[in-house]
Known about the structure:
Blueprint: H1 3-17, H2 22-29, H3 33-40, H4 48-57, H5 62-66, E1 82-85, E2 91-94, E3 105-111, E4 126-133, E5 135-140, E6 143-148, E7 152-156, E8 161-165, E9 171-178
Antiparallel strand pairs: 1-2, 2-3, 3-9, 4-7, 4-9, 5-6, 5-8
Helix pairs in contact: 2-3
Amino acid sequence: MTIEEQIGAKVRDLRNQNGLTQEELADRTELTKGFISQLERGLTAPSVSTLLDIVECLGTNLSDFFHEKDDLQIVYQKEDYFEKEDEDGNSIKWLIATAQSRSLEPILVQLQPGQSMPEDKPHEGEEFGYVLDGEIFLHYGKEKYTVRKGDSFIFPADRKHKISSACKKVSSILWISTPPSF
């Protein structure tokens, strides 16, 4: 669909929502019914000032007229997740496939006994974690913290950081970064 057709369709939809005929819209904008008809069929393009007059008569503004509605996904199911497993059996599961369009990135980490995740370099934002099962060490700068099942942590990501296993079973961690880093 061309831009002219898109504009025409939006004008037609707004006109219909307002219960106006093409002739009534033409009268209110001091345009001809023929011009409105051609506009709605995508056969002509209005000037910016003409389009401004039309959208104002239809009860909106140019910003709202051109704003695309987001098809924002709210619920994500297991088949939407993306999972990566390393050679040691550790896995990272991205729980929100479109996290780059959000202000945070939730992941589920499965950490095998005796293993650690790669060290993350300092970056902007914050990191939050909640240990769902097992026990881990949180390495934050030169500090090392023990975090057990049911414990959580949060820190500014301005230092090197990583997690490593602190027990003899698989540890599961819900990890949320803000903003997402790619």
